[in-house]
Amino acid sequence: MPKIVFVCREGSDEPRVAASPESVKRLTGLGLTVVVESGAGLASGVPDAAFEATGARIAGSGEVGSADIILRVNRPTATEMAAYRPGAVVFAVMDPYGNEAALADMAKAGLTTFAMELMPRITRAQSMDVLSSQANLAGYRAVIDASHEYGRAMPMMMTAAGTVPAAKVFVMGAGVAGLQAIATARRLGAVVSATDVRPAAKEQVASLGAKFIAVEDEEFKAAETAAGYAKPMSEAYQAKQAALVAEHIAKQDIVITTALIPGRPAPKLVSRAMLASMKPGSVAVDLAVERGGNIEGSEKGKVADVEGVAVIGYANVAGRIAASASALYARNLFAFIETMVDKGTKEFAVNPEDELVKATMLTHGGQVVHPNFATAAAAFVVDAPVAAPTATVAPVAAEPARVRKKPAAVNAETGGDAAAEEKL
């Protein structure tokens, strides 16, 4: 009997949806039965009829209890989990760091859960990389939001009445979000500069037509490990780089910060003193506001006036371009699920020895099984229900998961590590 995939409608603060008409068609092509909760795609511009046209059935939230596979954007709440049947397999962005109690709740509910943001950045998993797909859009949207708040034109304009100078945009961090912010600001005609602690980022920044800002001494040239991560920098170097960045920010119209690292507070990159040095009417965008922020004085969900600078602290920036974000996320989910469906028998099965499963599986069989969270969550897990799994799942081996490495260090004065993961 075909497995039932249920696509949930998210809460009012999340406009994205975990499926698209395209992904529904492809999921049904794998032999799965797709049920979409009524209204799930409305905030992303996808009406129920569009899902029905590609093979989905529209139903109320009550039918989630019969689902074998549940697709979500965000981790389910305790109330939502109560409606899921033990043994269901849930795919979502789980935000596990610091939320061990929530992981324990999922384990106690008997769910097999996968955190899409833990997908390893390897060649095989490129099409499943949620962090990259959503950060790319967040970088684009950051520039659009900044241009909206900025009371002047972005490109240089030469008119009969005189010349309008181009806006100067400084991007701190040249990871996925940062590189897209650079590219977008350049397309709008701004003069763009960027900084990052990795020497390799200089070439990437230059390839997009931006100027690279860093103290390029011998220490900087040796500041990257063989794996592509940043090495710890000396206090002397950090002081020199901080002085250079502070001097540069004073000349900018727009500053965009992108440094986010899973499991750690966002590094502080821009101080009030730096903001005070900027011209009146300047704008700063903090893409790390949900983890404490890179910019002093930024406020989650608001545009704050800090030292005369409009500091944008919107949460869920990728969700501010929900239609595109949902389409990419749906492709990420399909690409992962496809690896679990046998092409011949059309059977859905989870292989715990697969490196992608090892890296992303959080809970299974009533336990938190991911080695990064199991110990902290163990205190919360008691009396988990025992249920027959909805998919064939072999016993989970007690060996370390192959997860992406964390950066060796983050230099909070220079814009963070481009290898650091961007949050959704």
Automatic annotation (TrEMBL):
Family matches, as InterPro entries: Ala_DH/PNT_CS2 (IPR008143), AlaDH/PNT_N (IPR007886), AlaDH/PNT_NAD(H)-bd (IPR007698), NAD(P)-bd_dom_sf (IPR036291)
A GO term from the CC aspect: plasma membrane
Record region (Disordered): 402-424
An annotated Gene Ontology molecular function: oxidoreductase activity
The reaction(s) this protein catalyses: NAD(+) + NADPH + H(+)(in) = NADH + NADP(+) + H(+)(out)
Enzyme Commission no: 7.1.1.1
Boundaries of every Alanine dehydrogenase/pyridine nucleotide transhydrogenase NAD(H)-binding domain copy: 147-313
Example of a GO biological process term: NADPH regeneration
Superkingdom of origin: Bacteria
CDD domains: Rubrum_tdh (cd05304)
Enzyme class: translocase
Function: The transhydrogenation between NADH and NADP is coupled to respiration and ATP hydrolysis and functions as a proton pump across the membrane.
Family that this chain belongs to: Belongs to the AlaDH/PNT family.
Entry-linked PANTHER family: NAD(P) TRANSHYDROGENASE (PTHR10160), PROTON-TRANSLOCATING NAD(P)(+) TRANSHYDROGENASE (PTHR10160:SF19)
Name of this chain's protein: NAD(P) transhydrogenase subunit alpha part 1
Source species: Neorhizobium galegae bv. orientalis str. HAMBI 540
